[in-house]
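Notes from hallway chat w/ T.B., transcribed later so I don't forget. T.B. wanted the structure written out for a chain they're using in a teaching module, and asked if we could keep both sequence and structure tokens in one place. Agreed to drop them here.
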Amino acid sequence: MPNRSRVRALAAAQLANSIGDGAYYVTSALYFTRVVGLSATQIGLALTVAWAVGAVAGVPLGALADRRGPRGASALLALATAAAVLSFLVIRSFPAFLLAAVAYAVAQCGLAAARQALLAGLVEPRSRTRVLARLQSTLNAGLAVGAAIGGLALQHDTSAGYLAVFALDGAGFVACALVLARLPAVTPAPARAAKEPRLAVLRDRPYAAVTLLNAVLLLRMPLLSLAVPLWIVRHTDAPSWLVSALFVLNTLGVMAFQVRVARGVGAGGAAEGVRSAARTVRRSGVVMLASCAVFAASAAGGLGPWGAAAVLVLASMLQLVGEMQQSAGSWHLAFALAPAAQVGQYQGFFGTGVPLARTLGPLVLTALLVAWGVPGWLVLGAVFLAAGAAMGPATRWAHRRTRTVETAEAH
């Protein structure tokens, strides 16, 4: 299969499951409360446990994809995700919901790692960041379409409508599995030596440091979905409908500009590519600091509704730029700093930053921004700046270790 056809197939698989996910994200909370009858506390507890388990499971499932081949592992994990989603159609108790949520999170985290390993096997290194940017744009397009479909279900607010959304999401993952299964097979990693640890990434401290710094930068994820809405309502004079407008602005911005921002990131040789990606992440920390400062300024008195809205739009645009820079740089680093024979488990480990941000982000951001107000924004911006600046030394450390490992394997 030509390289362009492979990329189109990966994008088709991404689109297939992201449409259903978009509908699921906007309707799931109401479905679980109104149809299943769970409390908000029960839902929050189950999802926290589920994503914590999923984060841990991503590493061994990624290692399994390395050993057995990422194409088959990706297809099977997509089917497992579909089964978990479809199980929500019949559960009516908290224990059953907890088990289904854990199965969903485990399958999703494993699928993310296996798909990254599959991409690494199908796409040449110098093109991976650009391809990932295209897939991210496709993901956002699918989420936007799915959110519109979910909006129809919310408008009718019927059990049948919610069930149809969950069926759509399950069907999307089945379609994703079928597309992935038709891609060329990737040769599994060679069998490990007897003295080689089964999960080598857990002993790779430099890579762990890079992963941790990336997880800190991913605290930006709950900003638009949680922190900014609360900030707008409680601390500014801006109209409440701006919450939806800022979310749409972010989604469309990623769709339009993520590929352009990623262009050139990681270009050059291996060492120069790592330096280029680290610089991009460092710049994202600077931009995120500026974004936080502008968000803080939106609470200033005398702005009025439209003045506050204009400041918030500017802050969101800066946040969008920082997000796209951080994404592009981290994508390259995640691949470039991982041994070629262990991409799956390393991607599984790097991917733990996402569930970690989803789990801890709401607690950290509400404590900083809702409770502290303006000082909290400045502290958050300083954290982003420090994490971005620290990425340079951490990546140099990790790159030295990667070269040492590859040299030892060559001999």
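Follow-up for T.B.: The longest helix spans residues 374-410. Might be a good example for the class.
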